[in-house]
Structures are given as C-alpha cells and as structure tokens.
Amino acid sequence: MERTKASVVMVILLAVSPIGHVFSSPTTAPAFLWTPHDYGLSYEGVKDLVKYQTVSPKGLAKSVLEEAGWSNIVCSGENGHAKVDLALVFIGRKLHSLDLSKNKQHDPVLTDTLKMSFTSSKFSLAFPYVATSDGEGTVENALITEFSETCGHDFSESLKKVNDVVAIQEYVANTMERKTEKEKTDVILFSIDGLKELDGGKSEGELLSELVSMLEKSGVRYTVLYVSEPYNLGRYGTHVPLARFLEETNTSSSSNTTKCDETCKLKASLLEGLFVAITLLIILISGLCCMMGIDTPVRFETPQES
Q1: V-type proton ATPase subunit S1/VOA1 transmembrane domain location, by residue (predicted)?
Q2: Comparing C-alpha atoms, which of 102, 90, 43 is closest to residue 68?
C-alpha cells in the first residue's frame, strides 16, 4: 500500500502508464472504494491510496474490511451506533484493467464518475488489478462469503440485493426517516449480472452516476465499493476455448443453427487466406520448374553461303 499524489491517481484512472500493459494480466479488472464521510479510520484524512499488487477476490474483500475499515461499519454490535447509513457495493461489467490505459473509453461516463468520486472523497482506495478468474468463483460470492465470515450471522440480516435504482431510492428515503433509530450499516449489493442494460437502456456509467448523485443529494452517510467483473472474465476465465467449444456443442445438439460468430468468421478468413497462399505457392513452383526445364542450344551454326 502506498500514497500517491492526486495527479498520479488521475493518470491511473484514465491513462495507466505503459508499464501497466506489460505487467497487467488480461484476466484482471479494477475496483475502487470511496467515501465522502469519516467513519473512524486509523489513517483518517489520508486519501488517494492505490494498491498496485494483483489481488484475488478474497484478498479484495479482506482489504475492504481491514484496510478500508468496513469491518467497523458493516459488522453490527461493534460501535453501538452506525457511523455510516449505507454501504453500496456496485458490481460492474464493463471495465478491464487494460481499459484504463485507453484514450477512448467505451463508457466515458463510467470513468468520469469513478475519477471524480475517487479524487473528491475524504477517503479513497483503488485496486487496479483484481484477478477475477483465479478459481475462487465470482467476485460477488467472494465478497459475500468473506463479509459473512468476518461479521457472522448479523451480516446476512443487513445485506440487501437489488438491481434497480428505484429500490435504492426507496431505501434511502426510509433511512432518512428513521435515521435516529439506526444502529448498524446496511449493505446494498447492486449487480447487473446477466443484463447488459437496465432502466430504459441506460449505460453502466449512467446508472452509477445516477446512484452517486442521488446519494449526495439525499444527505445520507454512505460509502461505495465499485468492482468490475467483465462478462468474458467472470464467465469463462482463462478457459475461453474450452468453454466456447462446450457451449457450441450444446447449441448444435439442441438446434441446427448455422450462425457464424466473430471468432468463426476470423477462422474462416484465415483458412481462406491459407488456401490462397498455398495455391499461389504451387503456381510459382510449377512456373519455376517449367522455366528450368527449357533446353536451349549453347551455340548456333553459321548459315552456309549458296
């Protein structure tokens, strides 16, 4: 763990140095944690922390609980009253670690929201490289398991899973009404697993931006953990060819579809090019052999005079 300047963090969020291309694995995704409120951290006032090491989902959960102090707010019975009303866990499906270094972002609203939230909060912590396909299962399951083991049975009572913004808005409204009676922090897990778009086709960045804006305006005390687990990583991991082969086998056995996807088209183009190259090579070799087979006389006789 090391302290970085705000300018360096800005570069990390939008343009990771070229070293990131060399050492980052294609099976990693970033995670960001921030809070605009103080809730008794040992290094209160310190912000813009970046943990450059590659961590597993379980390691991420431990760091969130211990280093980010979530064990003091999500585990009931330790403080007597809640210092934070809401801990939001947002499971995204867009960002890869290498995406942070690209000039053109697929979802610029998402990166802008993460950048602004990370740099403007009182405490923020970044994990650029979270191994989302290390055999430990999904990031969501790893977080829930580690939180439950640390907090005990009380955590399951405070955990709420939602997949729409309206449910969170209703929760925040109810929280503000009974704010004086609140004794523990509830954890809301917002996951878009299996869905590419929600709420009328809004992008992931628009959903996150809307949630953060709503929390800011409500006056609720909150902290947010954004974790990215892209579809191709979380679903297939490092065994893409095998998983694709099994999926295509099941599909062909259930239906007689002849649809060719992008990988199929690429293989067909390569195979076609190989056949053309072999044909041209055979023509070239045949032509050279024919030319070498032509036998011409060394000298010509002088024509006789009549």
Answers
A1: 270-301
A2: 43
Contact 139, 168 (CB under 8 A): no
Ranking 128-132, 175-179, 226-230, 255-259 by mean pLDDT, the lowest is 255-259
Beta bridge partners of residue 187, listed in sequence order: 87, 159
Residue of 29, 33, 2, 35 lying closest to 16 (CA atoms): 29
- Residue 208: which residues within 8 A CB-CB, separation 6 or more? 90, 92, 109, 110, 113, 114, 226
Residues 193-224: tens digit of each pLDDT = 644 445 557 888 898 999 999 998 888 888 99
Tell me the C-alpha distance between 62 and 33, whole Å: 13
Query: How crowded is the C-beta side of 230, counted as CA atoms within 13 Å?
Result: 20
CB 226 within 8 A of CB 208: yes
Task: Calculate mean pLDDT across residues 132-160.
Answer: 79
- Indicate the pTM of the whole model: 0.66
Q: Are strands 123-131 and 186-191 parallel, antiparallel or unpaired?
A: unpaired
What is the pLDDT at residue 279? 95
* R_g (Cα) of the chain, nearest Å: 29
Question: In the prediction, which pLDDT does 90 show?
Answer: 94
Q: Which residues pair with 228 in a beta bridge?
A: 92
Tell which residue, 171, 182, 227, has the closest CA to residue 81: 182
Q: What is the pLDDT of residue 127?
A: 93
CA geometry: angle at 173 spanning 170 and 174, to 5°?
90
Strand segments, DSSP code E, in the chain are 2-3, 28-35, 49-50, 86-92, 123-131, 159-162, 186-191, 222-228
Domain boundaries, the chain: 2-236, 258-288
**Considering only CA atoms, which of 127, 51, 144, 41 is closest in space to residue 89?**
144
What does 52-104 look like in DSSP terms, one character per residue? -S-B-HHHHHHHHHHTS-THHHHSTTSSSS-S-SEEEEEEESS--TGGGG-SS
Task: Tell me the pairing of strands 186-191 and 86-92.
Answer: parallel
